[in-house]
Amino acid sequence: FVKNSNVLIAIQEVIDEFKSEIKPIEPTIYEPKQLNENLINQYTLTDFHLGMMAWDEESGDNWDLKIAEKTLLNFFKTSIELSPKAESCIFANIGDFLHWDGMDAVTPNNRNVLDADTRFTKLVRTSIRLIRQIVSMLLYKYKTVHLIMAEGNHDEASSIWLRELFSAFYELETRVTIDTNPDPYYCVKFGKVALFFHHGHLKRLNDLDSVLVAKFKKEFGESKFVYAHTGHMHNQQVRESNLMIIEQHRTLASRDAYASRSGWISGRDSKVITYHKDFGEVARN
Questions:
Q1: What does the angle CA 146 – CA 150 – CA 154 come to, to the nearest 5 degrees?
Q2: Rounded Cα gap, residues 171 and 13, in angstroms
Q3: Are 246 and 200 in contact (CB under 8 A)?
Q4: Which of 28, 30, 146, 198 is most buried by its number of CB atoms within 10 A?
Q5: Contact 130, 82 (CB under 8 A)
Q6: 188 or 29: whose pLDDT is higher?
Q7: How far apart are CA 87 and CA 135, in angstroms?
Q8: Residue 193 in contact with residue 227, Cβ under 8 Å?
């Protein structure tokens, strides 16, 4: 339904009204640290499926709202401690952060029924609380934080209000930037490095590179090191083309019953990738 232009206009009107009621958070005081201005840390998260329900006897691991919240906060707490002392960071949520997108627990386009934990209102509250906590953790370590809330096939509409909500919430916080691009392709330029992001539901590994170059000609042309990050398939793949390195990432979430019954089994992880502005990728945890 999101592809309907009238619905999109209506959603945007609701979001604009919603944003008008948000009181922006006051800027936090930054305490200078010995940080490397030549480095940026990318916290890579995709297909987290917050709100999904999984039963270990059926799919191998339990998953619900409480487990998901604890897992994500523990990941960021540990990874922030282990990450190099870069001056900047990217919280790169590459789509499907939420498992479903409205009052009905179904996929937006195909209306496939999903295994869902609890009510949508509780899911919304948990997602907002989680992102606020994570950004606060990142602001404590980094001078600047860039937030990407990419569109996924499970949260087409919710990714819109998440971007707009946090853009309004951090309006006064100059150390936080939000990518509010409505097009589901995203770019961060860092020195000689170009970083691209797309969930993977519209373009897959084999033909993603040409689309990204077409959309971000300037950034691509000015860069020596080019990387694209995607998800959607829940397994790890890396493809190096003539244009860039494209990496498809795993998820931290458990597999659901549908994935288990279909035989789609892969490992679970999330990565922090460190880039140097002159030399490209230099580390990962």
A1: 150
A2: 19
A3: no
A4: 198
A5: no
A6: 188
A7: 15
A8: yes
Are 118 and 174 spatial neighbours (Cβ–Cβ below 8 Å)? no
DSSP annotation of 156:
H
Whole-angstrom distance, CA of residue 228 vs CA of residue 194: 8
- Tell me which of 40-44, 45-49, 100-104, 242-246 is least confident: 100-104
Instruction: Give bridge partners of residue 284 from the DSSP assignment.
Output: 273
Radius of gyration for the alpha carbons in the chain, expressed in angstroms and rounded: 18
3-state secondary structure 48-98: CCECECECHHHHCCCECHHHHHHHHHHHHHHHHHHCCCEEEEEEEECCCCE
Query: Taking Cα atoms as reference points, which of 254, 242, 272 lies closest to residue 57?
Result: 254
At 130, list the tokens: 């989680």
**What is the pTM for the complete model shown?**
0.91
CA–CA separation, 267 and 61 (whole Å): 12
**Cα-Cα-Cα-Cα dihedral sign, residues 50, 186, 222, 242:** positive
Query: CA distances (Å), 28 to each of 168, 170, 179, in order?
Result: 16, 10, 20
Residue with tokens 């398939």: 233
pLDDT digits (tens, 9 = 90+) for 178-227: 999 999 999 999 999 999 999 999 999 999 999 999 999 999 999 999 99
